[in-house]
Amino acid sequence: MNKSLAKGIVSIIKEMEYADYICSVKYVIFFVSKILYDIKTSGRDILTQGYTRYRSTPNFYGDEPNVFKEHIKFNLNDKNTEEKIFNLISLSIDKNPMYSPAELYEILLTSREKKVLGQVYTPYELIDKMLSQVFRIKGINKKLKILDPSCGGGYFLAESFRRIKSKLNDVDDKYIIENMLYGIDIDDFSIFLTKMSILFISDSYDVHFNIYNLDFLTDDINIGNFDIIIGNPPYVGHKNTSAEYKKILYEKYTDVFYDKADISYCFFQKSKKLLKYNGILSFITSRYFLEALYADKLREYLKENFSIVSLSDFSGKTTFKNAMVSPAVITLFNLVGNNNQFPYVKYINDKIESFRYDQDKLKSTGWIILKDADEQLFNRINAISNTFIKDICNIKQGIITGLDKAFIVNEEIIKNYNIEENLLRKWIKNSNISKSDIKYNNLYLIYTNLIDDEEKYPNTINYLLQFRDKLSNRRECKNGYRKWYELQWSRIQSDFENPKIIFPYKSKGNNFCYDEKGYFCSADIYFINNLRDNINYEYLLNYLNSNIFEFYFKCIAKKVGNGLYEYYPNKLNNAKIYLPTEKQTQNISDLGKISIELFLKKMFNITDEEVNIIYKYNEKG
């Protein structure tokens, strides 16, 4: 991509007076593509005639249906902007400009716009690896049919075109485009980008594209069956999916989709129906399906309906620009075989770990994929552990204020507004927690749910009045469930005032800390309380912080970006620990962490070699 051209276009867009930034970007790319396509087909001489003459060409966008005519709605007909673009291109491009409309689109969209649109583009390195694998398996011949069901900017299809063209010398570009490449996307501008991405690397101009503006999951797809289905389906969680749309998916995709599942799971089931026998499915998707609670049906579906060709797990590492998603690449045969082993590749920091794994050992409760020695150790710990955490305690979330800016105050604000002292509670967030202590930073929560009469607390009410509009706009207040000054989710006061074990909901390792000072905590902290009568807080705390339990938990935990693990209740509740007998408890001197480690090492028959496995596993994350 010409850097000076991209930089100049950014400046032109900033000068446009349209309120809708995304609309402006689409228009600019539409017109840039038109000029550069005309240069490709007619030569650079069109620039010498100047903008006015160029733009006055009869039927500027063509008489017959073509890509520009089909997508004319992106044209804003802003002559001032068009002339700036024309002049910029005249000054900044060579005879044969290297141009990718999708790449330009990616450059022009800020991270905020990408988040709004839900668009994440696949890095070329991953596209290259995925296509190399599927073409190595299926080969390249003129009968091959390839589908990208969420084609986005057309990266997969454009690169497929390049590879097919270089391999099949006796087949022209028109044939490849019209008979071998298929794409679907719900976004109409993505359809334009995909078509143009292919046209700019093709020698054919008058072609019929099999690129359709459809919803792959809900529309009828009547374009035959495919040898290869490949792509990067969208990751859309339950919170960003409408109730109406979810209802449709529940009915159509009962094998993989329910409750809080991600809609990307449905792409696997729909693709299965469109694959030929022995066809190949290769998706880059969020790695969370390996452990996520609501992906159990998907995991079972994949195991029972495909043979896994390979699985690459980026293990919490993010590979996409401006996206927190940690991906996995899974390639599947539309064929069920017995005793299938697949290569599992795990990217850990800057290292790569690779080994083969038996598909039959995968469980719907979570794909715990470990080396033989690690797996034997985990299985032994799991078998000897005698109690689920959920059976000995409660795990609860901290407080959701609904507006921290209003309810969390420092000593200066307390003094300036003379906020009533009996409403104040010491406040901590997850960054204050470590295994050894709680680093309190002198912040307080105004626990307004104690207010039984506004007139008794005039100073607090007076302070909160400056936030009243925002507070009143919270969902629970608008629905009449909360008074405007109350906390959104205040929880149970005594839960915070009594002893508890607190821990951050995301962490690089086990960070459980005992709190007997009655700290109130934010929603990014969870806590353990209400221990069963015969359970000792100190034993449980040291157990949870032990190296052995950290190894065990990391084997089953969901790993997210930046080396972090999730410590949500659904996973922690179903983890197992070992509760000692009364006699064993007496033998654990002082109940200290070192003593617990020695006790557990003996209890689980852990060898010195396995101690090294535990330390290395915990260290690498």
UniProtKB/TrEMBL annotation:
Its EC number is 2.1.1.72. It catalyses: a 2'-deoxyadenosine in DNA + S-adenosyl-L-methionine = an N(6)-methyl-2'-deoxyadenosine in DNA + S-adenosyl-L-homocysteine + H(+). Keywords: DNA-binding, Methyltransferase, Restriction system, S-adenosyl-L-methionine, Transferase. GO terms for biological process: DNA restriction-modification system; methylation. Residues 179-320 form the Type II methyltransferase M.TaqI-like domain. Residues 428-574 form the TaqI-like C-terminal specificity domain. PROSITE patterns: N6_MTASE. The keyword Methyltransferase applies. It is an enzyme of class 2 (transferase). Gene3D superfamilies: Vaccinia Virus protein VP39. One of its GO terms (molecular function) is DNA binding. This is site-specific DNA-methyltransferase (adenine-specific).
